[in-house]
Amino acid sequence: MTSMMFSSAEYIRELRTSGFSQEQSETITKGVENIREDMNQLATKEDLRELKDDVKELKKETQSLRKELHESINGVRTELHESISGLRTEFKNEFKNFKDEIFARMDEYNENILHRWIAKSSVLIMTATAVIIGTIAFMHR
Question: Taking the mean position of all CA atoms in its chain, how far away is CA 52?
Fold first, then answer.
């Protein structure tokens, strides 16, 4: 932004020479100074070109960041999928081990029950045999 030199005193003198009073000349000069200050805040074509270039650069950076983010999300998605797959396999194995352990214990209990039944049946058969033998011996006397 280029700024032009402005002399308030010279401007007031020119206005006075043109027939304005001191008060009018000072008021007009203040107005011109305010306008100049406001104009100094306006963007120039060069400012707009720089802004346009900055926007282009931001678009490039945004696209790059978007691509990086997409790649990161895909990486996390892949890791998560692999982790879930691993957990599934681990769960299946643990469940199979648990099931095998339950069946092994059931077999043990069945075997124990069978042994107890055989033992009690044997005692019952021996008792019945003893009673029969005792009865036969008693009757033969």
Answer: 34
Print the domain residue range for 54: 43-139
Tell me how crowded residue 110 is: count the other CB atoms within 10 A of its CB: 10
**Six-digit token pair at 81?**
């999928």
117 burial class (0-12, 13-18, 19+ CB within 10 angstroms)? exposed
Q: How many distinct structural domains can be found in the chain?
A: 2
Whole-model pTM above 0.70? no
Contacts of 1 (CB under 8 A, 6+ apart): 40, 44, 46, 47
Residues 64 and 3 in one domain: no
pLDDT along the chain (141 residues), means of 10: 68 90 92 85 89 96 96 96 96 96 94 90 91 90 74
Q: What is the DSSP letter of 20?
A: -
Distance CA 40, CA 32 (A): 12
Q: Which of 34, 32, 12, 8 is nearest to 23 (CA)?
A: 12
Q: How far apart are alpha carbons 112 and 116 in whole angstroms?
A: 6
